[in-house]
Amino acid sequence: MNHCFFLQQVQNFGDPFFLVIHEGETLEEIKTRIQKKLRVPDEDFAKWKFASFSMGRPDYLQDTDVVYDRFQRKDVYGAWEQYLGLEHVDNTPKRAYAANQNRHAYEKPMKIYN
Fold first, then answer.
1. Which residue in 17, 52, 76, 114 is deepest, having the highest Cβ count within 10 Å?
2. Which residues form a coiled coil (predicted)?
3. Distance between CA atoms of 91 and 5, rounded to whole angstroms?
4. Average pLDDT, integer, range 36-65
5. Regarding beta strands 82-87 and 49-54, do their DSSP bridges make them parallel or antiparallel, or are they unpaired?
6. What's the DSSP call for residue 93?
7. Where are the beta strands (DSSP E) in 9-61?
8. Is the torsion defined by CA of 81, 82, 85, 91 positive or negative?
9. Which helix (H) or strand (E) holds 86?
10. Residue-wise pLDDT tens digits, 31-50
């Protein structure tokens, strides 16, 4: 018997944020709050996919899924052991790197406090 495994590489980008997920809340309800918080136009947001990640593996969610049930309450070993991921195109501008720079380096977000 042959088994094929689709290996999907996850590349996190953007600014992570905390969002309270209430018991019994569906993905559809959470998506409404996320879209409002991030101010994403309807046309773009309709293309986004949502997944619960555990140990780096995505489990894609449907609007009717109860998100709270996807996460275990336990002492978390790593900061990214479990999280809700938003799959979408990275529209941040790309920079050309100088020859002496690490081509695998990433840009860190800058925050300005007034």
1. 52
2. none
3. 29
4. 89
5. antiparallel
6. P
7. 49-54, 57-60
8. negative
9. strand 82-87
10. 999 999 989 999 999 988 88
Say which DSSP state 81 is in.
Answer: S
62-66 long-range Cβ contacts below 8 angstroms, 24+ apart: 62/27, 63/26, 63/27, 63/28, 63/31, 64/26, 64/27, 64/28, 65/26, 65/27, 66/24, 66/25, 66/26
To the question of pTM greater than 0.70 for the whole model, the response is no
CB atoms within 10 A of CB 47: 10
- Give residue limits of the domains in the chain: 27-87
